[in-house]
Amino acid sequence: MALKRSSSMKTQLVNGIQLQELELEEEINTSSSNNNTPSEPAEAKAHTEPKCYTVEEAVESIGFGRFHILLFVIMGSANIVEAMEIMLLAVVSPEIRCEWRLEDWQVALVSTMVFMGFMVFGVLCGYVADRYGRWKVVFGGFIWASYFSLLTSFSPSYGWFIFLRCMVGCGVAATSQGFILKTEFIPAKHRAFLLPLASIFWMLGSMLIIVLGMTVVPTMGWRWMIRFSIIPSILLIGLFLFIPESARFQVSAGNIKGALSTLDWIARMNGVSLPEGELREPEVTERGNAFTLISPAYRRTSLLLWYSWFVASFIYYGSVLSSSELLEKNLLCVTDADPEHQIKHNHEAALCYCIPFNMADYQTLLISCLGEVALIPLNIALLNVFGRKASMAILLVLCAVFFMLINICTTMFGFTVLLFLLRSVVSMNFNVVYIYTAEVYPTSVRSIGMGFCTSFSRIGGMIAPFIAQVLMSRSVILALSPFATACVICAIGVAFMPIETRGRALLQHG
Question: Helix, strand, coil shares of the chain as percentages rounded to 5?
Fold first, then answer.
């Protein structure tokens, strides 16, 4: 009896072990199928999922071609328009001073009002560009700036003139978003080469307004010079229709179909194909959120960038307005200037308002404009070899040196050379700041990031006239020292920027 009971217990134990083994085997098989183990090879699963690519991979795959040449020319022409509107202030200042009998502070206020319009609309345009698209903002900016620039030529009084120039500044703030639109189409390895070349167009705009000043102002007056200056804007409005909306913005807004259409058109124009698969990118629900700029990830970068933009604009417009002021009032100790230049500025009896530029003054301004492109190869080399941060620091130190050298007593030729070199390094610094800003922020806040930066830059532009045009009359070295000091402080600040963007892909999300 005991033997039978023992045999029965053994049978139950064996059956229980076999049942556990069967259950364990089923669990292993189930786990295998879920984890894609040998029961279902990884290759088999890969064939069931479609291939996909991101907009960054598409832009890099398309590479550089005919579309980018068209983009470079048309968006570069936008820099011509912007440069003409800004440089117009330096050329027209002696004329309006004469017509309305203006004091130094009133002449400086004209530039300040332009930059105030730029500052207020800079952030607004950045927000709108991140929310509704870059193309709409830039296109609307061209029309706005052209319209109010034309109205400026009919200004009946000084008050109307500064109001209308302020409105022009609002339009120019919108057109500056074109740099973002251009950057988002250019592959990473080409950005350090192509973006500095945009200085060529800025130089052309500066030279064009000076040539108009030389030819039109003496014969037809400053009002006709302004009317002729808006012709490039009108032509550009038509050309801009050939530029599509940014594909990076379209995918961030969830418009995958529109982005795919844009990328396909660019690829066909360049004679290449898009990557295999479908374009897949998550929609960014929060776009144009300014709080991202001061989030822990970007706080230090943003604060240092805002100051860098302030300084870049402060020293750029300081160099432009200082040069025109030094020439207009003959404040340098020039030893070989022509007699007319000396006599023209020598009025001891009374304050003279009407001191227009002569041909030699225009030629000096023209030569100094060439400085903005003369050292582009050096600019490209700095960006590729040292990166963005080191390039900014090097150029800022050089700016400080040349600002102080302008104060030395030299010949007109020596002054022209120093001014040429100063404009070169100041322009190069502005290029690097532009490029770094467009690369460091993600697509979701890239435009509003640029908007905040350009607004801070216009604070520098608002202050510069009161130093370059008002303080200059009292002391040349006192007027030039703030520009040099700001450069040195900024160079130190750049060293603490946490992010280097050389060779980095443009981020879609923060």
Answer: 75, 0, 20
Please enumerate in sequence order all residues whose Cβ is within 8 A of that of 196, keeping only pairs 6 or more positions apart, or say none: 376, 379, 380, 383, 428, 431, 435
Phi, psi of 499 (to 5 degrees): -120, 130
Contact 500, 389 (CB under 8 A): yes
Please choose, from the candidates 82, 28, 302, the residue with its C-alpha nearest in 3D space to the C-alpha of residue 209. 82
Question: Looking at residue 185, what DSSP letter applies?
Answer: T
Measured CA to CA in angstroms, residue 91 lies from 2, 233, 368 at distances of 120, 19, 14
Let me know: does 270 contact 62? Beta carbons within 8 Å. yes
DSSP structural state of residue 14:
H
Q: Are 341 and 358 in contact (CB under 8 A)?
A: yes
Query: Rounded to whole angstroms, how far apart are CA atoms 125 and 107?
Result: 28
H or E element, residue 53: strand 52-53
Q: What is the mean pLDDT of each run of 10 residues along the chain (510 residues)?
A: 46 47 47 45 50 84 89 83 80 85 83 84 86 88 90 93 91 82 84 79 86 89 91 83 87 86 91 84 66 87 94 88 69 46 43 64 77 80 89 94 83 80 89 89 85 86 82 79 94 91 72
Verdict on whether the full-model pTM lies above 0.90:
no
